[in-house]
Amino acid sequence: MLAVCSLLLATAVSMAVVGWLPRPAAPQMRLDQAMQVLRGERAADSVGLRVDMRAQAPVGTGNARLQQLAADGLHHPAGQVSLVWAGSSKPPDVHVIGADGEQSSAGTTAVLKAAQQVLASLPWPPFELAVQQIDGRWRVVSSAYSDLAAWRRQVVLALLGSMLLLAPLAAWAAVRMGRPLRRLADASAHLDLHAQPSLPDDGPREVQMLAVALDASRTRLREQAQQMTRMLAAVAHDLRTPLTGLRLRADFAPPAQAARMVADIERMDTMIEQVLDYARGELQPPQLQKMDLVPLLNDCVQAARLRGIEVAAELPVTLPWQADALLLRRALDNLIDNAGRYAGAVELRAARMDALLQVDIMDRGPGIPAEDRERVLQPFQRSETSRSRATGGTGLGLAVAVNAAHSHGGQLRLLEREGGGLIARLQLRATR
Known about the structure:
Helix Hairpins, Heat Shock Protein 90, five-stranded mixed sheet, 50% helix, rod-shaped
């Protein structure tokens, strides 16, 4: 509708320019200025005139009295001077009282000369004044006015006026389209598979259709991801049955072989538990509750010490926050275990900064190369240099922490620690 209205308005303005605007009027000329140009007393372009040579005298309607006046001013015989008005222009009707009288006196002559000067200085419709040269050609003075140039100027001005008329409509259309698109873009920037609220679908019909399509795509992707995650969780859960059988058989094996078998079984059981933790984080929406996080962080520290990890904690007295205790506990345990596995000693710090909660798990281990930090945050990804397969694990520990951070509206960042080592920075945003 906006495009059709704009097109109709632009077409109406164009038709008005072509069909109803009057033709630009040509500027008037003065006879005395034309004579000055022919006598070489002033430049033609200084008074809007032009001079050209022609083989024939200009054709048009003339006035004998004005032609005689021009011949006298140019000091040429009347037969060698031509003063005509071409086209639709008509010569002025000039009549000097007393000019044809038989009696003449000095006073009358002075009056006539004054009248001639007045006639020469009056503005007339555009004319052509020509003087015949010795070679028989005619030197013609005419107006430098161009109908085409004047018409173009008038059309350009009219089109500029139409642009001013269309500008408010275009601005209104841009605002009407732009605001809903910006709101949709802002909402899409924070879109994930766990988000439940629908995207804003106000604004023009096209924007509404785009919002509905994005919402439908998110729903389909969420269903596909949940289906694959359920399958992964089912496979991991079913693996526990044969592992239990293998543990029973290990009891009847020789002691040396039994120890190795139990170690492998425990390692596989740990991997299965990590897969199930990742699947729970993907399938279950976060259960955010108001709580003090300091006891939760202390529990994580004490549990890590029982697992043989040296942990030094620097925590505030109290830290109220909206959090899912189970998700956050899984994330912290994984981050502490990773740091302890590769560095031995771990430092934990927590602080609140306005609407952001920041928990740093720091170590002095080999760290992770900068080019691998984004990759190892993905599921089943491990660093090939410092995190060898001999250390165990499935590459899901960091992915579980990433899911927990996203569930709390935050993020997990891996940073290089000054002096060597790695900082796993878990940032959580306050929920409204």
